[in-house]
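writing this on my phone so excuse typos. first protein, seq and then structure
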Amino acid sequence: EVQLVESGGGWVQPGGSLRLSCAASGFTFIGDAMSWVRQAPGKGLEWVSSIVDSDQPTNYGPSVKGRFAISRDNAKNMLYLQMNGLKPEDTAVYYCARECTYDSGYKLVCRYRGQGTQVTVSS
């Protein structure tokens, strides 16, 4: 059974930083593409970042590029998201996910997601 368990969310002031973690189990983590996605109140899922493996290029959504950094530790089956320069518009529930794609209506759907961790950015 695939399990993805996120942690590390919380409240932070604008400009602050948080590091999210995701513990993965139930599948072969090494070489498997992993993503972070988020969902703001009243909105659909938004892709944040993806990583295939540690020695391959990472990808970021335009709203977070230059501020967020995704990484993974294959030895520990862990996925991370370092978030710097946080803005109020980054407020959302963040999910660790795999097998994400866009449906015919350009809606992001992910076959596997964790329970999510809340990130709130406000003063």
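second protein below, same order as before
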Amino acid sequence: ELVESGGRSVQSGGSLKLACVVSGFEFSDFYMGWLRRAPGQVREGVASIELDGTTSYSDSVKGRFTISRDNAANTVYLEMTDLKPEDTAMYYCAARPDASNYQFDRTVYKYWGQGTQVTVSS
């Protein structure tokens, strides 16, 4: 099970930190990602973290978002700064058991959370 939290409404330029607590599988053995779906859009990956902590980001969030993981707490985080109205979306954490060059592709992920809503107003 993956349970996200931390989403809420904020003003443009604001910050949020999302958390995703994992249970039911060995967290440290899974590659983790954050993906989002804006209204009328497909789900897109924004951040990914490898088993060794290596991170990668989509161009749309690079320099503003930071993904991290705490294996002791079975938790993955997404710290978001300088939020923009176009960041408004449902944010999902997801887990995949294998390394992939397509870490932003939703189809490589095996387990998903229910999502947490982030709304950024101008």
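The mean pLDDT is 97. thats all i got for now
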